[in-house]
Amino acid sequence: MSILSRTKSLENRCEEFLDITNESTQILLQGVETYLSGKTPEFEENLNKIVLLESRGDALRRDIENQLYTETLIPESRGDMLALLENIDNIINQAKQILMEFSVEIPHVPEQFHADYIKLSQHSAKAVDEVVISTRAFLVDPLNVRHSLNKVYFWEHEADRQSESLKRKVFRTPELELSEKFHLRYFALHIELMADKAEDVADRLAIYTIKRSI
Amino acid sequence: MKVKIATVFESDPKIEKKCNEFFDMVGQSALVCLRGVQSYIEKNLSALDEYAEQARIFEERADEFRRDAESYLYSETLIPESRGDVLALLENADNIIDQIRKMMLAFSIEKPEIPAIFHADFLELTAKCVESVDEVILATRMFFTNPSKVKEVLSIVYALEKEADKQAEALKRKVYRSDGIALSNRIHLRYFTTNIDLIADRAEDLADRLGIYVIKRMY
Questions:
Q1: Which of A40, A158, B11, B197 is deepest in the core (most CB within 10 A)?
Q2: How many CA atoms lie within 13 A of B6 on its CB side?
Q3: Domain boundaries, given as residue ranges, for chain B
Q4: What pLDDT score does B39 carry?
């Protein structure tokens, strides 16, 4: 049975929150690409969009939380819903944080690493997209999310591998200063972190599914 | 609106006293943090080390207290309807002290080189974060005595956290756009900015918890 079957307005708000999550990863991808290709105005536009999305996501999350408690909706699941929303919000925050850091720190990324950063961003975004699919599935049919959860874990693992390979490459480039290597590593780590946050959501979903199957 | 329920501690004044002592520690560690950063900026390193030591003592005492409170709440089966919430609040408040200790320790160990042009920015950022801690502790105390008044204070915490974020971002932009600073120094200054700003984030986490618990109590 759907978790939100009795509460249409709550369902709509949750759907909207998940749409924001999806949109954030798309903007993040565009942001990384525009930064690397030196298209500053387009990059700044992406940054502004993601800042607005993050702020909308925060407000929407707090609204949903209020609604869950003030209208005493789905009392048996609201603790789980709360934790789920907060963990998804962490993904949106991380996506914004990455673009903000590019904007603030303007890292020098040598061209030889561009494709690696884009690939890493794509893998991390893929992990998020899959966890959004899993969450939508969970809200409709909590017992059937295993299939999509596996994909989250797969893409998180791919992001880990890509990040490791990028960092190895960076630290084996003799013409870079140590501080530049640290800086490039920092950005790789933070893009990878978005996939880790998606994995955190997946872990929670897996537990909630087990709870519901007993 | 439905009728407000009784205060959390009505059935257990003993735990109220203990929790208040704990929140005193959080408030004091925030002040220690501000004095520590001020001392560092004034190049008074011995004072900084003393404040870092005080932060360490607060952190250890707070951990001990939190563990005691956990076993007390469960073994005495007091306020059973609220103990999960009380524990989560203590844990979130403890995270604030942990972050302050971590930040002070980092100053004491790494002694970052902060050019004079950033002194005021670091002090303002620290003051803003400390203020957010002060307000969230005020809100937490109110939660235990008069939950209906908490929401107003929480909005102040959120505003302060947002301001701290803005200041941190502005400071980092300044650091990365100032001439004559090596990349390694920029990274070092960014690290300290982020760690100070995290204190306000921890205050916001506690505010989020309080927000939910207030609603639970009101409806």
A1: B197
A2: 8
A3: 13-218
A4: 98
Chain A neighbors of B186, CB-CB under 8 A: 105
Task: Report the amino acid identity of residue A134.
Answer: S
Q: Alpha helices of chain B — where are they, by DSSP H? A: 13-41, 45-75, 83-110, 119-145, 150-177, 183-218
Say which CATH architecture domain B13-218 belongs to.
Up-down Bundle (1.20)
Which residues of A lie closer than 8 Å to B, measured between beta carbons? 62, 65-66, 69-70, 72, 82, 86, 100, 104-106, 177-180, 182-183, 186
Q: What is the pLDDT of residues A119-160, one digit of tens each?
A: 999 999 999 999 999 999 998 887 778 888 999 999 999 999
Closest CA to A102 of A175, A29, A169, A21: A29
Residue among B172, B183, B216 whose CB faces A180 most closely: B183
Question: What span, in angstroms and rounded, lies between the C-alpha atoms of B215 and B5?
Answer: 11
Tokens encoding B209: 């918890």
B57-70 tens-digit pLDDT: 999 999 998 888 87
- Coil, helix or strand at residue B76: coil
Q: Residue ranges of chain B with pLDDT lower than 70?
A: 1-13, 77-81, 219
CATH of domain A8-213: 1.20.58.220
Closest by alpha carbon to A206, among A148, A130, A156, A126?
A148
- Residue B11 is classified by DSSP as T
Q: Which among B182, B187, B215 is the nearest to A70, CB-wise?
A: B215
Task: Provide mean pLDDT across the span A33-55.
Answer: 97
